[in-house]
Write a sequence for this structure.
């Protein structure tokens, strides 16, 4: 048995063996109801319409000196001047006119206290805002006589996405990227380059170092370093550079001899610090160990170096350390300084 279906004025014949149990839904109802809620032009009370909510969220508007106040009183929709057929024949846009009724209030103020004493003048006026394209019965728009429709698009759900991809330029190297997809606004992309430098993009545009974004958000150099690197405090004692002894920092094989404050080698280079050995060192009173000079000259300052006597800034944050700078700090009487421990 053939199944028949009316689609508008057309009669469609269905040759399927399984009969249709449910009617085809109105797939354009979502767009039609959304547009009707936006204007609500056929309703007497339009206070719940979308355009009314937008106007009420903006008004009233005050000037910088608080002398003038612009208030929103309501809106008016003027019916289309031409029909759909006339717009198609004349090449016009099928639209309605939106007019807004406003009230301008001029306040009388006290010049000394700047307080409002009363109303000086009030003026009301209806302002033409613009023409808004009107949706036809076919759920379409007529723009310059040409029928246009709204095409729905898929939208990525908001969230954070991390990816791991092989590098296109360097073999056997993985590149890590991240995306921040907001509910509204620009997308943020974060990516490492083959040199392990972190960059960011806004809407897939030109990439910039991620530190520029942090500086734009109000982070200082010290704040940025704390986000990416642990900080290490180095003290100067008897022309030696000392750091606090923490057993957790020496679990891997050492690249240098571990020397205590008295100059004794407590652990040779190339060995690991076992938990039992670490307990013995702590029980024996080891609180600080020497930081090798050859390793220190390749680090960067995490905080500015200030002369304790004059208050002058000798070296700023992110200054690379060398032997000349270390000598100048010792001569100025600097007792300790902080570095970014990028080896941790």
């Amino acid at each position: 048995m053939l199944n028949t279906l009316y689609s508008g004025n057309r009669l469609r014949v269905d040759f399927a063996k399984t009969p249709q149990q449910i009617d085809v839904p109105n797939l354009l109802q979502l767009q039609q109801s959304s547009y009707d809620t936006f204007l609500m032009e056929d309703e007497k009370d339009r206070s719940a319409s979308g355009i009314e909510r937008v106007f009420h969220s903006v008004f009233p508007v005050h000037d910088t000196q608080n002398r003038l106040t612009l208030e929103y009183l309501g809106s008016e929709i003027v019916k289309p001047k031409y029909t759909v057929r006339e717009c198609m024949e004349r090449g016009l846009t099928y639209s309605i006119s939106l007019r807004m009724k406003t009230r301008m209030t001029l306040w009388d103020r006290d010049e000394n206290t700047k307080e409002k004493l009363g109303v000086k003048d009030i003026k009301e006026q209806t302002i033409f805002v613009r023409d808004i394209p009107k949706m036809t019965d076919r759920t379409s728009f007529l723009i310059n006589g040409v029928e246009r429709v709204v095409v729905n698009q898929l939208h990525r759900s908001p969230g954070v996405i991390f990816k791991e991809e092989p590098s296109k330029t360097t073999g056997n190297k993985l590149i890590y990227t991240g995306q921040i997809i907001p509910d509204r606004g620009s997308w943020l992309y974060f990516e490492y380059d083959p040199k392990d430098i972190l960059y960011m993009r806004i809407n897939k545009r030109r990439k910039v170092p991620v530190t520029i974004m942090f500086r734009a958000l109000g982070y200082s150099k010290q704040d940025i370093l704390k986000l990416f690197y642990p900080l290490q405090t180095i003290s100067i004692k008897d022309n030696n550079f000392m750091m606090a002894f923490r057993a957790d920092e020496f679990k891997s094989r050492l690249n240098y001899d571990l020397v205590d404050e008295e100059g004794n080698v407590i652990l040779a280079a190339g060995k690991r610090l076992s938990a039992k050995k670490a307990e013995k060192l702590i029980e024996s009173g080891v609180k600080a160990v020497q930081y090798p000079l050859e390793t220190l000259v390749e680090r960067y300052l995490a905080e500015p170096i200030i002369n304790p006597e004059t208050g002058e800034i000798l070296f700023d944050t992110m200054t690379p350390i060398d032997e000349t700078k270390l000598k100048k700090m010792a001569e100025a009487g600097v007792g300790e300084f902080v570095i970014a421990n990028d080896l941790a």
Remarks:
- The chain has three domains: 29-148, 159-217, 227-340.
